Protein backbone atom coordinates (compact mmCIF):
# COMPACT_ATOMS: atom_id res chain seq x y z
CA UNK A 1 0.00 0.00 0.00
CA UNK A 2 2.90 2.36 0.56
CA UNK A 3 4.42 2.20 -2.92
CA UNK A 4 4.49 5.26 -5.10
CA UNK A 5 2.83 5.14 -8.52
CA UNK A 6 2.56 7.21 -11.66
CA UNK A 7 -0.37 9.67 -11.63
CA UNK A 8 -3.49 8.72 -13.55
CA UNK A 9 -4.82 10.75 -16.50
CA UNK A 10 -7.10 12.95 -14.38
CA UNK A 11 -4.33 13.85 -11.96
CA UNK A 12 -1.87 14.36 -14.81
CA UNK A 13 -4.27 16.82 -16.44
CA UNK A 14 -4.76 18.61 -13.13
CA UNK A 15 -1.00 18.96 -12.71
CA UNK A 16 -0.77 20.64 -16.10
CA UNK A 17 -3.59 22.99 -15.09
CA UNK A 18 -1.83 23.91 -11.84
CA UNK A 19 1.45 24.56 -13.63
CA UNK A 20 -0.32 26.78 -16.14
CA UNK A 21 -1.89 28.81 -13.34
CA UNK A 22 1.35 29.08 -11.34
CA UNK A 23 4.63 28.51 -13.19
CA UNK A 24 6.53 27.86 -9.96
CA UNK A 25 4.96 24.40 -9.80
CA UNK A 26 6.52 23.52 -13.14
CA UNK A 27 9.88 23.50 -11.35
CA UNK A 28 8.88 20.51 -9.23
CA UNK A 29 9.13 17.88 -11.96
CA UNK A 30 11.91 19.79 -13.70
CA UNK A 31 14.02 19.42 -10.54
CA UNK A 32 12.65 16.23 -8.97
CA UNK A 33 11.77 14.17 -12.03
CA UNK A 34 8.38 12.67 -13.00
CA UNK A 35 5.73 12.91 -10.31
CA UNK A 36 5.05 9.84 -8.17
CA UNK A 37 2.05 9.71 -5.84
CA UNK A 38 0.35 7.55 -3.24
CA UNK A 39 -2.80 5.82 -4.46
CA UNK A 40 -4.60 3.63 -1.93
CA UNK A 41 -7.89 1.72 -2.21
CA UNK A 42 -10.92 3.19 -0.45
CA UNK A 43 -10.94 0.55 2.27
CA UNK A 44 -10.87 0.22 6.04
CA UNK A 45 -7.25 -0.85 5.69
CA UNK A 46 -6.37 2.43 3.97
CA UNK A 47 -8.05 4.42 6.71
CA UNK A 48 -6.09 2.53 9.36
CA UNK A 49 -2.90 3.22 7.42
CA UNK A 50 -3.80 6.91 7.33
CA UNK A 51 -4.58 7.00 11.05
CA UNK A 52 -1.28 5.23 11.72
CA UNK A 53 0.51 8.03 9.86
CA UNK A 54 -0.84 10.83 12.03
CA UNK A 55 2.10 12.83 13.43
CA UNK A 56 4.62 10.18 12.35
CA UNK A 57 7.16 9.92 9.57
CA UNK A 58 6.28 7.82 6.55
CA UNK A 59 8.87 5.25 7.52
CA UNK A 60 7.61 4.86 11.10
CA UNK A 61 3.98 4.66 10.00
CA UNK A 62 4.72 2.04 7.36
CA UNK A 63 6.68 -0.06 9.87
CA UNK A 64 3.72 -0.08 12.27
CA UNK A 65 1.24 -0.86 9.51
CA UNK A 66 3.43 -3.70 8.26
CA UNK A 67 3.37 -5.23 11.75
CA UNK A 68 -0.42 -4.95 11.77
CA UNK A 69 -0.52 -6.77 8.44
CA UNK A 70 1.73 -9.48 9.84
CA UNK A 71 -0.67 -9.94 12.75
CA UNK A 72 -3.87 -9.95 10.70
CA UNK A 73 -3.00 -10.74 7.12
CA UNK A 74 -5.52 -8.28 5.72
CA UNK A 75 -6.41 -5.38 8.00
CA UNK A 76 -10.20 -5.56 8.19
CA UNK A 77 -12.67 -4.31 10.81
CA UNK A 78 -13.33 -7.90 11.93
CA UNK A 79 -9.65 -8.75 12.21
CA UNK A 80 -8.78 -5.60 14.11
CA UNK A 81 -11.60 -6.04 16.63
CA UNK A 82 -10.44 -9.62 17.18
CA UNK A 83 -7.01 -8.36 18.26
CA UNK A 84 -6.38 -7.48 21.88
CA UNK A 85 -5.26 -4.01 22.86
CA UNK A 86 -1.97 -5.56 23.90
CA UNK A 87 -1.46 -7.01 20.42
CA UNK A 88 -2.20 -3.68 18.77
CA UNK A 89 0.06 -1.85 21.19
CA UNK A 90 2.84 -4.34 20.46
CA UNK A 91 2.49 -3.52 16.76
CA UNK A 92 3.16 0.11 17.65
CA UNK A 93 -0.26 1.75 17.86
CA UNK A 94 -0.75 4.25 20.67
CA UNK A 95 -3.73 3.91 22.99
CA UNK A 96 -5.54 6.77 21.28
CA UNK A 97 -5.00 5.28 17.82
CA UNK A 98 -6.16 1.86 19.02
CA UNK A 99 -9.38 3.46 20.24
CA UNK A 100 -9.81 5.35 16.96
CA UNK A 101 -9.29 2.24 14.82
CA UNK A 102 -11.69 0.23 16.99
CA UNK A 103 -14.37 2.92 16.82
CA UNK A 104 -13.89 3.12 13.08
CA UNK A 105 -14.22 -0.67 12.74
CA UNK A 106 -17.47 -0.68 14.70
CA UNK A 107 -18.93 2.14 12.58
CA UNK A 108 -17.99 0.37 9.35
CA UNK A 109 -19.48 -2.94 10.48
CA UNK A 110 -22.68 -1.30 11.72
CA UNK A 111 -23.12 0.53 8.43
CA UNK A 112 -22.87 3.93 10.11
CA UNK A 113 -19.86 4.63 7.88
CA UNK A 114 -20.62 2.96 4.52
CA UNK A 115 -17.17 2.98 2.93
CA UNK A 116 -18.43 1.58 -0.35
CA UNK A 117 -20.74 4.58 -0.74
CA UNK A 118 -18.32 7.37 0.10
CA UNK A 119 -17.23 7.72 -3.50
CA UNK A 120 -20.67 9.09 -4.37
CA UNK A 121 -20.64 11.67 -1.54
CA UNK A 122 -19.35 15.22 -1.85
CA UNK A 123 -16.14 16.25 -0.09
CA UNK A 124 -17.88 18.07 2.73
CA UNK A 125 -20.11 15.11 3.57
CA UNK A 126 -17.14 12.73 3.59
CA UNK A 127 -15.08 15.02 5.81
CA UNK A 128 -18.00 15.46 8.20
CA UNK A 129 -18.60 11.72 8.49
CA UNK A 130 -14.95 10.91 9.09
CA UNK A 131 -14.22 13.67 11.58
CA UNK A 132 -17.13 12.57 13.77
CA UNK A 133 -14.84 9.74 14.83
CA UNK A 134 -12.71 10.74 17.81
CA UNK A 135 -9.10 10.85 16.69
CA UNK A 136 -9.90 11.54 13.04
CA UNK A 137 -9.27 15.17 12.14
CA UNK A 138 -9.23 17.19 8.92
CA UNK A 139 -5.72 15.96 7.97
CA UNK A 140 -6.79 12.32 8.08
CA UNK A 141 -9.98 13.03 6.15
CA UNK A 142 -8.11 14.99 3.49
CA UNK A 143 -5.45 12.29 3.10
CA UNK A 144 -8.11 9.59 2.65
CA UNK A 145 -10.02 11.70 0.14
CA UNK A 146 -6.85 12.53 -1.79
CA UNK A 147 -5.19 9.10 -1.81
CA UNK A 148 -8.21 6.80 -1.87
CA UNK A 149 -11.02 8.77 -3.53
CA UNK A 150 -8.96 10.93 -5.90
CA UNK A 151 -10.60 14.11 -4.61
CA UNK A 152 -8.16 16.57 -6.12
CA UNK A 153 -9.33 19.58 -4.11
CA UNK A 154 -8.64 17.91 -0.74
CA UNK A 155 -5.69 19.84 0.69
CA UNK A 156 -4.11 18.53 3.95
CA UNK A 157 -2.84 22.02 4.72
CA UNK A 158 -1.51 21.16 8.18
CA UNK A 159 0.92 18.58 6.77
CA UNK A 160 4.44 19.62 7.77
CA UNK A 161 6.18 18.30 4.66
CA UNK A 162 3.73 20.11 2.39
CA UNK A 163 4.31 23.40 4.21
CA UNK A 164 8.11 22.97 4.28
CA UNK A 165 8.24 22.17 0.57
CA UNK A 166 5.94 25.08 -0.29
CA UNK A 167 8.21 27.45 1.64
CA UNK A 168 11.24 26.14 -0.26
CA UNK A 169 9.57 26.25 -3.66
CA UNK A 170 8.33 29.79 -3.16
CA UNK A 171 11.43 31.06 -1.36
CA UNK A 172 9.42 32.26 1.62
CA UNK A 173 11.23 33.59 4.67
CA UNK A 174 8.88 31.69 6.99
CA UNK A 175 7.01 28.42 6.78
CA UNK A 176 3.34 29.09 6.02
CA UNK A 177 0.75 28.08 8.56
CA UNK A 178 -2.07 25.79 7.48
CA UNK A 179 -4.35 28.82 7.22
CA UNK A 180 -1.81 30.72 5.13
CA UNK A 181 -1.27 27.74 2.83
CA UNK A 182 -5.00 27.43 2.22
CA UNK A 183 -5.07 31.14 1.40
CA UNK A 184 -2.17 30.82 -1.04
CA UNK A 185 -3.80 27.83 -2.74
CA UNK A 186 -7.35 29.21 -2.89
CA UNK A 187 -6.97 30.40 -6.52
CA UNK A 188 -6.08 26.83 -7.53
CA UNK A 189 -9.47 25.36 -6.70
CA UNK A 190 -10.72 22.75 -7.57
CA UNK A 191 -7.20 21.26 -7.67
CA UNK A 192 -5.68 22.32 -4.35
CA UNK A 193 -4.88 18.71 -3.47
CA UNK A 194 -2.58 18.55 -6.48
CA UNK A 195 -0.38 21.05 -4.67
CA UNK A 196 0.05 18.50 -1.87
CA UNK A 197 1.02 15.74 -4.31
CA UNK A 198 3.59 18.05 -5.92
CA UNK A 199 4.95 19.27 -2.59
CA UNK A 200 5.44 15.74 -1.21
CA UNK A 201 7.31 14.86 -4.39
CA UNK A 202 9.44 18.01 -4.06
CA UNK A 203 10.05 17.32 -0.37
CA UNK A 204 11.32 13.79 -1.07
CA UNK A 205 13.69 15.20 -3.66
CA UNK A 206 14.98 18.04 -1.50
CA UNK A 207 15.24 16.06 1.73
CA UNK A 208 16.22 12.72 0.28
CA UNK A 209 13.52 10.90 2.21
CA UNK A 210 9.79 10.25 2.07
CA UNK A 211 7.63 13.11 3.26
CA UNK A 212 4.27 11.58 2.58
CA UNK A 213 2.12 10.00 5.23
Describe the structure concisely for a colleague.
The chain is an all-alpha fold and 213 residues long. Helix content is 60%, strand content 2%.
Describe this structure in words.
The protein has helices at 9-21, 26-32, 44-52, 58-72, 77-82, 85-91, 95-110, 123-131, 138-148, 160-170, 178-185, 192-207; strands spanning 4-5, 37-38. With 213 residues, the chain is mainly alpha-helical. It contains twelve helices and two strands. The mean pLDDT is 94. Helix 2 runs parallel beside helix 12 (192-207), helix 3 runs antiparallel to helix 7 and helix 8 crosses helix 9 (138-148). It has a two-stranded antiparallel sheet with strand order 1-2.
Terminal residue distance? 11 Å
Please tally the β strands and state the result: 2
Low-confidence stretches: none
The order of strands across the largest sheet is: 1-2
Secondary-structure-derived class: mainly alpha
Order of helices and strands: EHHEHHHHHHHHHH
**Share of β-strand residues:** under 5%
Helix content: 55-70%
Helix run count: 12
Q: Which value, in Å, is the CA radius of gyration? A: 17 Å
- The average pLDDT score comes to 94
User: Strand count, sense and closure of the main sheet?
Assistant: 2 strands, antiparallel
Overall outline = globular
Amino acid sequence: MAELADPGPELRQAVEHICTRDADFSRVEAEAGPLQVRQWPATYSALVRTITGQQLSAQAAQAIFSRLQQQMGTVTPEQLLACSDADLKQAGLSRSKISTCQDLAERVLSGELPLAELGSWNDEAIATALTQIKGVGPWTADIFMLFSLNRLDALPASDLAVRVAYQQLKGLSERPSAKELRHHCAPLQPYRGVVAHLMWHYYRHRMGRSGQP
